[in-house]
Automatic annotation (TrEMBL):
Monomeric. Residues 34-183 form the Globin domain. Keywords: Cytoplasm, Heme, Iron, Metal-binding, Nucleus, Oxidoreductase, Oxygen transport, Transport. It is found in: Cytoplasm; Nucleus. It comes from Gasterosteus aculeatus aculeatus (three-spined stickleback). One of its GO terms (cellular component) is nucleus. It catalyses: 2 superoxide + 2 H(+) = H2O2 + O2; H2O2 + AH2 = A + 2 H2O; Fe(III)-heme b-[protein] + nitric oxide + H2O = Fe(II)-heme b-[protein] + nitrite + 2 H(+); Fe(II)-heme b-[protein] + nitric oxide + O2 = Fe(III)-heme b-[protein] + nitrate. Its EC number is 1.15.1.1. Pfam families: Globin (PF00042). This is superoxide dismutase. Probable multifunctional globin with a hexacoordinated heme iron required for the catalysis of various reactions depending on redox condition of the cell as well as oxygen availability. Has a nitric oxide dioxygenase (NOD) activity and is most probably involved in cell-mediated and oxygen-dependent nitric oxide consumption. Under normoxic conditions functions as a nitric oxide dioxygenase (NOD) but under hypoxic conditions the globin may switch its function to that of a nitrite (NO2) reductase (NiR), generating nitric oxide. GO terms for molecular function: heme binding; iron ion binding; nitrite reductase activity; oxygen binding; oxygen carrier activity; superoxide dismutase activity. Residues 1-37 are annotated as: Disordered. It comes from the Eukaryota.
């Protein structure tokens, strides 16, 4: 299997507890679970290894995301029609978006000591994706899973199971903050019967 290929895609988004057009509400905790000092240190240490190759890692993440979840490409007119992973890899627009994604994660990681800054950054990301880009919030959860999958495969020495669990906690907090922004802008169309 190449870096861009992966095992069969995860279950459809509705099986992840989110339906199209909805933000999870039923199981949404009042706040994201805070990271301990040790967890923050683990994330920052492992991220240092990843960020050295941020553009390539980001491109790998986005290509796998678009290959396994092609419906996500609907939000990207500049590479919406691309099917071939090599064509995607050469796309300057995809590379640019990969840098933006990785830089946003970097901002979060660099500011883990400042929860208000993290919340502010993720509120901006969520608001832009809700209002300007009209991206379904479920794609943030899916992208988080793809990111963790790529990091654990490409950096196995830095992402053993214990580290993956810490990153899962961080990405859950990221999703919580981003979907909070969706709720704040009125995106929420709650169905109490979320699968």
């Amino acid at each position: 299997m190449s870096r861009r290929e992966s095992p069969p895609p995860s279950p459809p988004p509705q099986l992840l507890g989110v339906r199209s057009g909805e933000v999870e509400r039923e199981d949404r905790p009042e706040r994201a679970e805070p990271l301990s000092d040790a967890e923050r240190e683990i994330i920052q240490d492992t991220w240092g290894h990843v960020y050295k190759n941020c553009e390539d890692v980001g491109v790998t993440v986005l290509i796998r995301f678009f290959i396994n979840f092609p419906s996500a490409k609907q939000y990207f007119s500049q590479f919406q029609e691309m099917e071939d992973p090599e064509e995607m890899e050469r796309s300057s627009q995809l590379r640019q978006h990969a840098r933006r994604v990785m830089n946003a994660i970097n901002t979060v990681v660099e500011n883990l000591h400042d929860p208000e800054k993290v919340s502010s950054v993720l509120a901006l990301v969520g608001t832009a994706h809700a209002i300007k880009h009209k991206v379904e919030p479920m794609y943030f959860k899916i992208l988080s899973g793809v990111l963790l999958e790529v990091l654990s495969e490409d950096f196995p020495e830095f992402f053993p199971t214990e580290v993956q669990m810490v990153w899962t906690k961080l990405l859950g907090a990221v999703y919580w903050h981003v979907t909070g922004a969706y709720t704040d802008v009125g995106w929420l169309q709650v169905s109490s019967s979320a699968v």
